[in-house]
Design goal:
28% helix, 496 residues, four-stranded parallel sheet, GMP Synthetase, Chain A, domain 3, alpha/beta
Length: 496
């Protein structure tokens, strides 16, 4: 059976009472994972969800949200997690595109979600809502649905610098292969305890972190979000921590964060955004630990990693994972001499099945020989070590979240007194990159008016942290806005 949940089941500890999730409200044992995921799955089936149906979830992080994901796996439904920061207009696009059978939302959002024709269930941060209530009366004996390797397990929405969001289709085999490789590559061992403070609506927190723990039968210290105080409290109890660079910079700001705090940690992992070499060095000087940086993306999960045993080099993302082939090519698709910059392309069992209902876009992103074009600019050393040096597209990664300038620009340009805008990422000491907007206005408009409009229409992480008003945007002879010049002009805007 190729169902990903069956793979996890085979690695659950023999002692089913062992905690899987330890959280502020108590513990969820592996036995509870079995029974409650079965009940959640049966509840979804009672609402008409069949194998291959889509289930959208925009819910707060909670143990129940993890059970919902596992329930979708075991009944063969396609799980679609949405960032909790998305506004209703943003959610509406995903609903119209994915046509889900059921939508699960926070109880506070139920009234506004009534505009959708799909069945609505609720799930709150404290485990309350109509979904868990419905699940209480369901059987705990549900079997796991058989799945083919290429059956879809999840759709995660990403975007490009133009157009609307794209649904990356991830199969049971995609997710299983990546989890098994990472479990071995990062040398997970019996007794490992994971400290989890990441969101669970994207690859890093939902797939990379939880899948490794499930394959290892490990206990997870499950935090609702990142709090320096809470992480410092639990670090001595953990052996593995995964985070974004912001986690590590904020820990370094805490005077009581010491090597003693990390005494039981086996591995610190960083991803979702570039880790500054200064952060790497400062962390090692403070704790004695070299953070392991890796690289991945929605469409492929993890792609490369610095080694567990071997040199972890600051400013690089290591080597292609076992089973993954990577190459760096120029604009003609030819591999340049090692060390020169080009576009990173990959092929492997972790690479997604394509974009939901976008066959032409899918075809555009793959080479005839099957390699996927990541859009990231990289170098590859003679030994195969890879460094990401930029992006072919104008993607901004702020605090680990992808921000697509075109979407923000379209929102700003919709204001009546705005002529045009350009959205860029600028170096930020906390978020890696901070979103900034350069605006050309044709009449009176205030910063407050722009910010109010953005707040109403875009998730907070997409909203520019700086606004600059100019008379004109720099352009080349072809009329294209020169974002490189803008980034240079405002490079120190977020300097502390």
């Amino acid at each position: 059976m190729s169902n990903l949940y069956s793979l996890f089941q085979r690695h659950f500890p023999a002692e089913g009472g062992q905690p899987f999730l330890i959280h502020a409200r108590g513990e969820v044992s592996f036995d509870t994972v079995e029974t409650k995921s079965a009940r959640y799955g049966a509840a979804l089936q009672a609402r008409g969800v069949q194998k291959g149906d889509r289930v959208i979830a925009q819910v707060q992080k909670s143990p129940e949200a993890v059970l919902l994901y596992l329930a979708c796996l075991r009944i063969g439904a396609i799980f679609i997690p949405l960032n909790t920061a998305y506004t209703l207009p943003e959610v509406q696009y995903f609903v119209e595109d994915a046509t889900p059978r059921v939508i699960i939302c926070d109880p506070a959002s139920e009234a506004s979600f009534s505009i959708f024709t799909a069945d609505i269930l609720t799930l709150g941060a404290a485990g309350e809502g109509s979904l868990p209530e419905l699940a209480k009366g369901m059987s705990a004996e549900a079997t796991v649905a058989p799945a083919n390797p290429d059956d879809l397990a999840a759709i995660l929405y990403t975007s490009g610098t133009t157009g609307r969001s794209k649904g990356a289709m991830l199969t049971h085999a995609n997710l299983a292969s990546n989890a098994e490789v990472l479990h071995e590559y990062w040398a997970w061992e019996k007794g490992d305890v994971l400290l989890h403070a990441l969101p669970i609506f994207h690859v890093h927190g939902l797939f990379v972190a939880l899948h490794c723990a499930l394959l290892n039968g490990s206990t997870v210290l499950f935090h609702n979000g990142f709090s320096v105080e809470d992480v410092l409290r639990d670090l001595p109890k953990a052996t593995v921590m995964m985070g974004v660079p912001t986690f590590y910079t904020r820990l370094l700001e805490a005077q009581d964060f010491t090597a003693e705090t990390c005494r039981n940690i086996r591995l610190f992992i960083s991803g979702s955004a570039p880790l500054l070499a200064d952060t790497f060095a400062s962390f090692e000087a403070r704790t004695g630990y070299k953070i392991l940086e890796r690289y991945g993306m929605t469409e492929a999960g993890m792609i490369t990693s610095n080694p567990y045993s071997g040199a972890r080099v600051a400013g690089t993302v290591g080597f292609a994972l076992p089973g993954v082939q990577a190459r760096v090519v120029d604009e003609n698709g030819t591999e340049p001499p090692r060390g020169e910059v080009g576009v990173l392309e990959i092929i492997g069992p972790n690479v997604f099945a394509g974009y939901w209902q976008m066959p032409e876009k899918t075809a555009d992103e793959f080479r005839p020989d099957g390699f996927f074009i990541t859009g990231d600019m990289a170098t590859m050393a003679d030994d195969g070590r890879i460094a990401i040096v930029g992006r072919a597209k104008d993607l901004v990664i702020s605090g680990g979240f992808n921000v697509y300038p075109k979407e923000v620009e379209d929102c700003i340009d919709a204001l009546p007194n705005v002529t045009e805008s350009a959205v860029i990422g600028l170096p930020h000491p906390d978020f890696g990159e901070g979103v900034a907007a350069v605006i050309v206005a044709q009449g009176e408009i205030t910063e407050a008016e722009v910010q109010a409009h953005l707040t109403q229409n875009l998730a907070k992480y997409k909203q520019p942290k700086k606004l600059f008003f100019v008379e004109a945007l720099p352009r080349n002879t072809m009329g294209k806005v020169q974002k490189k010049a803008l980034r240079a002009a405002y490079a120190t805007a977020f300097a502390s």
